[in-house]
Amino acid sequence: MKKKKFSLSSPLRVGGPAGARSLKESVDYCTRCNACVQSCPSYLLHREEAYSPRGRNQIVRLLAERKIKFTSNAPLIKDVTRTCLLCARCTAACAGALPMADHVLALRRAAGWNFLPAPLKMFLRLHGTRPKIFERLLAPLRLLRRLGLVRLLRISGLLRLSALQWIRHADDIVPRRGRSLQKILKKQKINLSPENADILYLPSFEAQYLNAEQARCILHLLKSKSPCILLNIPSGLFEYIYGDLALSLAQAKQLLTVWNKLAGKRKLPVLTDSIEVYGFLKHFPVLFAAYPSWHKRAAAFAAKVLFVTDLLPTRPTETAAADGLCALDASSVLYPAEDAAAKARKILKTHFGKNFVECEYSRFVTLAGGLAFVRGAQTQETALENVKDVARRQITQVYCLSGLAALELDAALRRHYPQARARHIVQMQAEP
Fold this sequence. Notes:
By secondary structure, the protein is an alpha/beta fold. It contains 21 helices and 8 strands.
């Protein structure tokens, strides 16, 4: 098979204050002012310019201008892009709001790198391509976990192999017991598609398969509404990060088509419980900037996307009393969602008063959006820095806007600082 030629040219546009533009135009907007550098977790760990957002941006620019050769610098470029957490803190710090995570992803695609172990990538990809097969495979995997397969692998020493590191981490955050959202809905006899729906609910991967409590709390929030629940309809985010870009756009088109069909003239709002998915859905108009007919649909759709903070009550509840300090983790992948984070801060401050630590608990981002399963790079160091920061401030509750981030952080806290725990923000509410 002929090896794919390295090329950064693509019809896909990236965003910014000036609107959608090509990768080369976006990279050229960088003024090299250094504002992004101190916000980058990988730079704070490496202390090397190449591992900063500015350094990565310059690598993309030099490659696009053909001032350096990819083949001559492939090892360094691979390590530099591998260590990017796609946390978008650089974009939040940038005066021009440059989408530097998108620049890194464009470089990964051009080189053919995805950094997920092949078996894991194939398994997670089934969630979007073969959801029924994916759900059937989860049951035997949970059984193997209960039987202690991972413990046997750890005793045998096989988990020391870098290719198997993700199995140990998955064992930390994937529950041994529990039902999927689809089974919960079936047991409670909840109609997935009521005739007079007034909101569409697009559950995240974790709400569907990993955290039943999170799903139940969201259904409790929707009890006064008639939600149409969109099960097994991928947003395209996973493929956008790790898979085929064409498949990602196809999945995004499928979601837009389903929305147009179900929303009709009323243009129903679409609720999601994942900050990563929320940012990605809001970004749809940029993704389809090169396709005028789809761009119009994507813009109408993005205007109707809601995050769970839009439904959470701002009045205090009896169950919200904190024994100690409470903090917010507003970590996101790719696209900062300051509107959702601002609402979350207001809600938590109302509920917990002086016990709420106003600033985010850490300068390090918690990995999420599929990144949670990737070991190596600096993920372990990042997780440990998060735990140290929580322990240093004596925080006992961390509320996350990402379900996977909550599972990731909670696993690290259980191991190093068991006095604290991390949960998704909807779990602050009383159980129905």
